[in-house]
Amino acid sequence: MPLCSACGGNTFIPRVVGEKIQTESDPPFAQPDEVASILENIERDLENYEAEICRIRKEKGRLEHYAAQLRSLSSPFRKIPNEILRQILDDCCDMNSFRAVDLKRRLPTQTAHALTSKPAMVVSSVCSRWRQTALSMPAIWSRISLYWDVHGEDHNWEYEDIEIVFPLSCFLIRSQQHPMTLNLDLEARPFILIPTRGLHLHLLLTRLFEQIICWQSLSYRCEYYSFEEFLNHSSIPSASFPVLRRLCFAGSVMEEDLTPFTTTAPNLQMLDLPDTPVPHSSYPNSHQVDIQDVFNKFPNLFSLGLTESTLYSNGVSPVTIACSSKLEMLTIHHREGWKDPSDSSAVFPLLRLPSLKVLHLVTDKSESTDSDIYRLWDDQSWSNLEPFVVFVQQSALQLTAFSIQGLSISDANLVKILVLLPTLQDLTVDDSGIPQKCSSISSEFIEGLHTYRTSSLRPQEACIVPRLRSLRLLNVAAPMFKDWLVVEMVKSRWIPAKVNAVGTSAFKVDCLRVFTMTFVKRWEENPGHSYSLLAPIERNGMMIVIQISGKTLGV
């Protein structure tokens, strides 16, 4: 708006004075045509102003985008060496998921999830540097998980699901024959009935089976066909698994299911059978998996996963005991808080593993609602505790790592187990899904871990697990906790010199390096105040993590 050069006032003089508009009489000077002309000019000016505002906004947006690009040039992330960037991308791309679902039952959210479930494709789309780095890493393209839920009789096989087949082919090409991690979860039969050729695998499965010599890790689940039947329909003349290291069969497995791997997978080192109960004693014409037979057929096996229960116990001792001098890692799968009153017993009496170093007790969630299965939360007891203790004693275990996840064990029984493991270095107790009254992570348990202070659970003066270096207590359900006991226990195990003298006796205790404790929830306003006393220890080298409801507290 122009201003007067002499006085600085407004020089704008409207053609229609405001005072005249406010008069009750008709303005004699303003004719209708003149007023219409003025309004038309105003409308034209307003349109010009709007257009100018839009132009300025677009220009502002372009400048902001250009400024962001310039700032990215000076971003510290650009200074990260390619070696570190490769490690970051490798950690982010743990698995690329493909879902084959019938178009009639496909949800709109599944289309949006198609890209985000393939992290290798995502990171390769960020910028040219990331794309070049991702394409030079065949490992991130060779981790594939396929979920199949398309019934052959309901699917139009002329349409081969290009949106799934094409990306999968790109992944296989970019994997460059790198050892592959493959998860197959088949809810339906992925076969095509071709009149002239018979029953054949769908194109997706065919592409994957063409890379069979590259399979390094295989996880398989299918309720309809055994893996051997898939091999028979895969058009592969002789299946061989020269680089296969890990094999996992979900669901019930028979002895013949392992037959394709006995002579064709000479390097198999890890076998996981989480849902397959092994026979406790001999049974006529049984096709169940025999543990000793597994040890004999796979001599290089050093890791084994089994379910906790067995079959055909009949209240008698096991006929044969499976023994392996090479097995170093054992995972026992326990059904979440359930006990089957049918004729079954624990798998522990069947095993003698003197070389075992790592033991995991894992609870698998159960979806069963049968009336013959009932929960055991109220009695706070693990029914197979005594067989487990006998197994530890008879095998003379020298464990270095022990973890318990979602298993209802009292604090007293947990201390009883730890007393038998003096060589333990890494302990993890995860109370996921366990009610507070059944939790083993209590104040008494924490006090029992103190190096020199006796407690109700540990009346003797000798320290339990003296070689402990890493302690993780996860998902503690107690809303109130004696945090000062935790602080005192951690302080007692912070021994950089690895030697601690008490009274007239001296005993060696390793220095605790890692301590993690996570709470589901707490009632106190500031429970993290007590853990601030651990700040000097953290500054001197111990890794300490305290979390409440997913939020990390500053030590």
UniProtKB/TrEMBL annotation:
Domain of life: Eukaryota
InterPro entries: LRR_dom_sf
Gene3D superfamilies: Ribonuclease Inhibitor
Protein's recorded name: F-box domain-containing protein
Organism of this sequence: Rhodocollybia butyracea
